[in-house]
Here is the input.
Amino acid sequence: MSLARKSAVVVCTVWSLVALGSCVIFATTGVSQLSTDAGQGARTAIAALLLAGLATNGVVSTLAWRGRKRGQLDERDAAVALRASQATLIALAAIIYAACIGLYVAHEDAGVLPAGWLYILAYGIVVVVSLVHSIALLVVDIGGRVDG
Amino acid sequence: MAKARIRNRVRELREARGLTQAELAARSGCTRQTIIMLEKEKYVPSLSLAFAVAAVLGDRVEEVFQPEGSSG
Here is the structure.
């Protein structure tokens, strides 16, 4: 397995666990509790999960930088990364749009939005970007046609 | 304008010269994964890589890479 594919698998696995952990914490804490003092533990736990994910991204980026210098990454890996980034951008726009419209529709009658949703949106976007990008990398690398 | 599909003879020429994918990759300055995708025609290389691969295979670039429908 190439360095690029190994990196994408590692990032995808770690961010899947982060996403799963975050969902469990969000679900058990509840949106209304999240923005209160009672939700401090949950916020800290989610922040720690994100930190672990970001640290993984940092390690993988460093390994990729070293690998590029050693010739373990080439022009095709760069082309795959570009295609994956384009796909991620489109997917992210669609996800943010759907999430915001969904929240608007759900809370339209109340006229107010629990602050906890903004926290979930903010942290959720970080998780979704890394997760979707690593999935897109794998899909394009394994099956997609790319041009150099 | 629609992009022309590029066919290549990388596998055929590599095997004829007794090279492994890893050897061809190392000599032409790319990864083995790229050679695999080249041979499956799932990757169209840059001009510089196309010239490098052709040079390692000892052929002219137009004999290794050809647009689909070209008789060569």
Summary: The interface with chain B takes residues 2-5, 71-77, 79, 141, 144-148 of chain A (CB under 8 Å). Residues 3-143 of chain A form one domain.
